[in-house]
Amino acid sequence: MGVNYFDTSPIYNSSEEYCGKAMVGWRDKIFLASKTDKRDRDGSLRELEKSLKRLKTDYLDLWQIHHLDTMDEVNQTTRKSGALEALIEMKEQGVIKHIGVTSHSHPPLLVEMMKRHPFDTVLCPVNPGDMAMDPPFIKTVLKEAKKRNVGVVGMKVFAQGFLFHPKGVTTAWEPITYALSQDISTIVVGIDTIAQLEENIAIAKNFTTMDKKIQRELEEKTKPHKRRACFFRRAYGGYDSKEELDPPYTVNNL
Q: Which structural domains are found in the chain, ordered by start?
């Protein structure tokens, strides 16, 4: 259906194994991104070796330092023998085509990382609830990335379903179109069914930039539910905090 950007990670259960089996025969037709959550050079290299084996490939289009949560982790990854050294070495050797960095918890961490190294990409949350946070990724990370010509991959577009609310966002069109209307390169959106996939692709193929007024209205509509939309942020205690929320909605069960 035209999707050619695939995002995986060693910590996504069996995701890499599934991708490895499915990619046989068409690896060269996709842009494959994976990650390392190790903070040191040697640990990252060992993890890459395992990832390539699971993915049944000898290269990655993008390798990313995964989910930075604290400034201490920023320092760990960028110091001598830190994870960044592994990414740079593998890019120089041609095993990796591009390198990136990700965070879902604290925008200043990604801004600092971009100041320390010319990354090719950043992966960060992009949804209307983000604008109610202080600081928002949209006004900080996206601004810095644009200034440095760094590609932006938007995640948490649906916030795993927690973004949806009967008195807030009620359609898939709203968050997808909102995210694609920002200064980003692409988005990664999880799915549970083929029907959801087909709907998401249809929205993307028919995309036109969302009017600024509608964007502001959507942000205001989401603001009362920002706790759900941004459950993964440090301000709310990170991923464990979603256990305190009502179950996530889908468009079909609103």
A: 5-253 (3.20.20.100)
